[in-house]
C-alpha cells in the first residue's frame, strides 16, 4: 500500500498527538533520529560515527545523548579497546519505548 503525501502527514500527526496524550518523552527530531540510528542499525555505535551518519556535529550529538541518557533510553560507555572513543549502547528502557512507539504507530496506520 502506497501512502499519499497527505496521508503520511496525517499519520505522523496522529502518532505525535497520541504520543503526547500517552505522556511519552518529548523528544526533538534530532534526539529521535539519533535514537532510531542506534536501535535500527548494526552496532557498535560511537559518538563520532553517529555524528558522521546523521551529519551532525559531535557537540550536537553529545547534547542529544545527554537527554536520551537522562531518560535511560541509551547508555554511553568508554570503549575499552580505544579509551578515546565513547560507545553508545541500547538500554532496556529504550527498547521497550521504541517497541511501544512502533506498536502505537502501527495502530494509527491501520486507522487511516
Write down the secondary-structure element order.
HHEHHEEH
Q: Overall pLDDT, averaged?
A: 93
Secondary-structure arrangement, i.e. CATH architecture:
Orthogonal Bundle
Question: What is the percentage of strand-forming residues?
Answer: 5-15%
Domain unit count: 1
Give the fraction of residues assigned to helices: 55-70%
Specify the structural class: mainly alpha
CATH class: Mainly Alpha
Strand order in the largest sheet: 1-3-2
Tell me the CATH topology.
Arc Repressor Mutant, subunit A
Task: Give the beta-strand count.
Answer: 3
Report the major sheet: 3 strands, antiparallel
Give the uncertain stretches in residue-range form.
none
Shape: elongated
Return Rg in Å. 16 Å
The number of distinct helices, counting runs of at least 4 residues, comes to: 5
Cα distance, first to last residue? 12 Å
CATH homology superfamily name: Winged helix-like DNA-binding domain superfamily/Winged helix DNA-binding domain
How would you describe what is shown here?
It is a single chain. With 112 residues, this protein is mainly alpha-helical. It has a single domain, classed as Winged helix-like DNA-binding domain superfamily/Winged helix DNA-binding domain (Arc Repressor Mutant, subunit A, Orthogonal Bundle). It is 62% helix and 11% strand. The chain contains five helices and three strands. The chain has a three-stranded antiparallel sheet. Helix 2 packs across helix 4 and helix 3 crosses helix 4 (58-70).
Describe the SSE topology:
Elements: H1 5-21, H2 29-40, E1 45-46, H3 47-54, H4 58-70, E2 74-78, E3 86-90, H5 92-110
Antiparallel strand pairs: 1-3, 2-3
